[in-house]
């Protein structure tokens, strides 16, 4: 024991004074390095497994939080897009109300009418807001329909494409007047009893003529998309599509027309004073009316 202790003291003094054991220490360190690595493997493996599961839990928690945030952001984005679209549409409606020299009421569509075979909607404005039956309803592009029934806080609007709706129109290009009838669920309108040689072409724009005393003159109504003329028939089949957003709007303008200033409508003229073309058109209309009434609803 004394020998080993004395040897240790000699080596310590020689190393501190003469630095004679540096290379030997480096050689021993190089030789023992693999043994140290093997000895540290269990500890490193334990730390690696613990870090993996900790990171996995952290990532799962963060992933769930990011998914929730993504859903909230998507909802907010959709709402912001809807608000931007409504804002743009309201600006257009305000511009449309400035172009029309009539008082108007801004309204919003609540829901469609219960009858699936009609083209009607319910507005959130009624008699308490000044609405009356017969008032025209427009959007930023043109005529949408007409108020047909009024309740205290709601009103029913019959759209242009309803099968029971008709509106007097005038061709902007040629000035030809006619009446446009709705065709129900097909979403189009028809100019009935028009002569085969009438100056109406595909692409013509139809405007309100104003002769009915309900719709102000100059409002955009529809665009002609089809003109079918046959030599065997006295009348043409003319179809058109509404220019207004009949099925895609949420906000509408109700024009407050003054019905008290309208002249009373005269009685129907006797057939003796009608022209042959007008007489034939009236008889065809009277003959087709019972047939349309008898047609069963799909």
Structure description:
With 298 residues, the chain is of the alpha+beta class. 38% of the residues lie in helices and 25% in strands. It has helices spanning 2-18, 22-99, 276-294, and strands at 104-112, 120-123, 136-138, 143-150, 155-159, 166-171, 177-182, 189-195, 205-208, 220-228, 235-242, 251-255. The strands form two sheets. Strands 1-2-5-4-3-12 form a six-stranded antiparallel barrel. Strands 6-7-8-11-10-9 form a six-stranded antiparallel β-barrel. The longest helix is centred in the N-terminal third of the chain and has 78 residues, at 22-99. Mean pLDDT is 78; it is low at 260-265, 271-277 and 289-298.
Question: Which helices and strands appear, and what pairs or packs with what?
Answer:
Elements lengths: L1 H17 L3 H78 L4 E9 L7 E4 L12 E3 L4 E8 L4 E5 L6 E6 L5 E6 L6 E7 L9 E4 L11 E9 L6 E8 L8 E5 L20 H19 L4
Antiparallel strand pairs: 1-2, 1-12, 2-5, 3-4, 3-12, 4-5, 6-7, 6-9, 7-8, 8-11, 9-10, 10-11
Offer a concise description of the structure.
This protein is of the alpha+beta class and 298 residues long. It has 3 helices and 12 strands; from the N terminus they run ααββββββββββββα. The longest helix is centred in the N-terminal third of the chain and has 78 residues, at 22-99.
